[in-house]
Every structure is written in C-alpha cells, then in structure tokens.
Design brief:
The protein has about 100 residues and is an all-alpha fold. Helices cover about 55% and strands about 0% of the residues. The chain has 5 helices and no strands.
Length: about 100
C-alpha cells in the first residue's frame, strides 16, 4: 500500500511523519539499545517489587503508634490558634450594674 502510493502519486499524501499513511521511521541501533536498557531496568524493578520487605504479619499495624502521634500533633496545631470559650456572663456582664431587684 505504501509503495503503491509512493509510485503512483509521486510522493506521500499529506505530512510524511504523521497520519494514517505516514512514512515509517528507520530503527537505529541507538533506539534498540535504549529499548533494551529500558526493558532491563523495568525487569529489575519488577524483581524488587515482587519481593516484599516485611511479611503480612509485620506489616499489619506497624505504623499505628506513629500515625496516632502525628494525628495528635495535627490536632494540637489546629486548636492552638482557636480562641478561648466565651460565656454568656462575659457578654452580659455590663448589664449587671447593681444586683438589687428594686431598681
């Protein structure tokens, strides 16, 4: 198909590097070596990922204490800037000039 288009139309229709009838790129030895090194690196990563560092029993709740401490720090930091409680007596204290019922 590609050869027929090139011979009959005297060229490649449209852009030669993109599209449905694009010209295929030549594979160089650098491309091959990069792909081989990429696949080797990926295989090494899969090897190390497949072997866990801890067993399931060790992994279960191993960081619970640390997470609880971090949560307490976050909670304390959140309430550090919180204003103190105001009671209704503080708001209405200016009305209490005299404590007698007669006036």
């Amino acid at each position: 198909m590609f050869l027929t288009l090139c011979l009959l139309r005297k060229g490649i229709p449209g852009k030669q590097w993109i599209g449905k009838y694009r010209r295929p790129r030549k594979i160089t030895w650098q491309m091959k070596s990069k792909m081989v090194s990429h696949l080797e690196r990926e295989a090494a990563n899969e090897y190390w990922i497949s072997r866990p560092y801890m067993t399931k029993e060790q992994e279960h709740s191993h960081a619970a204490e640390r997470r609880a401490q971090n949560w307490l720090k976050i909670k304390e930091a959140r309430f550090a800037n919180f204003p103190e409680h105001k009671r209704i007596t503080d708001h209405l204290n200016h009305l209490r000039i005299t404590k007698t019922w007669s006036s």
